[in-house]
Design goal:
InterPro entries: RibonucZ/Hydroxyglut_hydro. By secondary structure, the chain is an alpha/beta fold. The protein contains twelve helices and eleven strands.
């Protein structure tokens, strides 16, 4: 495969201090959560594992990333494509470099996110390290110091006297460590942080605009909305790659109901998974897109073909033909 350039989020840049801190923290948290999840699964040997534990493990796996694919994309560890390629870590600290023109095909890419703003960067971090020592310890982090709950003078060595063993059992401390809802919430917070590092960009091809937000969630969209010129770019779209498989938190209502002002196609790329069948894609999102005159292209429900505009090829792929808008000069 011949590839000229690969665009990845700046958090993958090994020479960027902010990137190393963010990615390192996310990876440590993912490893720790996965270790905790695996431990919980093992405790249910021969019994049904709670859904929350399975979901938390899935989130943690997703947050770990794919080292082999990343090596190929970045052209390291002797991996790559058929020929050397350029890697762009986006967005660039040089604002002018976030408008990428490819003259031979009449294309301009406007890179809108993720943000490099210091306040937004905090949203990409996993929770503060002091609140995650157990997660880090589960990952085998020898530097993950577990701060004792009580002063040493209150720690008893040897068997507990009197009724203290019964009182200790009543505290159910082990349950607090293995609370499945807490594990799932922690994994969801981490997934949100990772998703908000997605490259968020608009392709403008001779006046036809296509939006690709990756898996960006509400925080990343808020940053994009904060710039009036970005909102203007989103107003006239012919195509939108629906964020994060059509999940509930990846497409803001205001974008569908207010900002996207032209009719266009919304593609929902996903594979049906039984566990998420009732929530992905979000029914209300699909209905809102359709009610605002956007044709929704779904992997599981190919739309009726529109002659000259859209063709469905069995259950394999869907072809959408976009035409350049007519620009009338005054």
């Amino acid at each position: 495969m011949l590839v000229d350039e690969v665009w990845v989020p700046f958090v993958e840049d090994p020479n960027d201090a902010d990137a190393r801190r963010i990615r390192g923290g996310q990876t440590d948290a993912a490893n720790g959560l996965l270790a905790l999840g695996e431990r919980r699964v093992a405790e249910f040997a021969g019994r049904a594992v709670p859904t929350g534990v399975l979901q938390a493990r899935m989130f943690a796996l997703n947050a770990q990333g794919n080292a082999g694919a990343t090596d190929r994309l970045l052209g390291r560890n002797q991996l790559g494509f058929a020929a050397p390629h350029r890697v762009r870590f986006l967005p660039s600290k040089q604002e002018a470099e976030n408008r990428i023109a490819v003259d031979r095909v009449g294309l301009v890419a406007h890179v809108l996110g993720p943000s490099r703003d210091i306040n937004f960067l905090k949203r990409m971090d996993p929770p503060a390290q002091q609140s995650w020592p157990l997660v880090r310890a589960a990952a085998g982090d020898t530097d993950a110091t577990l701060t004792p709950l009580f002063h040493p003078r209150y720690i008893v060595s040897g068997p507990l006297p009197g009724r203290l063993p019964e009182a200790k059992a009543d505290l159910a401390l082990q349950k607090l460590v293995h609370d499945d809802d807490r594990l799932l919430r922690a994994a969801a917070i981490l997934e949100n942080a990772v998703n908000n590092t997605s490259v968020f960009f608009v392709l403008d091809i001779s006046g036809t605009r296509l939006l690709f937000p990756g898996d960006a969630q509400q925080g990343a969209w808020d940053y994009v909305f904060s710039d009036a010129s970005n909102v203007e770019l989103l107003a006239d779209l012919a195509f939108y790659k629906v964020g994060h498989h059509g999940s509930h938190n990846a497409t803001p209502r205001r974008f569908v109901e207010k900002d996207w002002q032209t009719a266009g196609y919304a593609m929902v790329p996903f594979g049906p998974v039984q566990r998420w069948v009732k929530t992905i894609p979000k029914k209300s999102l699909v209905e809102s897109l359709e009610s605002h005159h956007h044709m929704v292209v779904r992997a599981d429900q190919p739309p009726d073909a529109v002659p000259g505009r859209l063709a469905v090829h069995g259950d394999i792929w869907t072809e959408v033909t976009l035409t350049a808008p007519n620009h009338h000069q005054e």
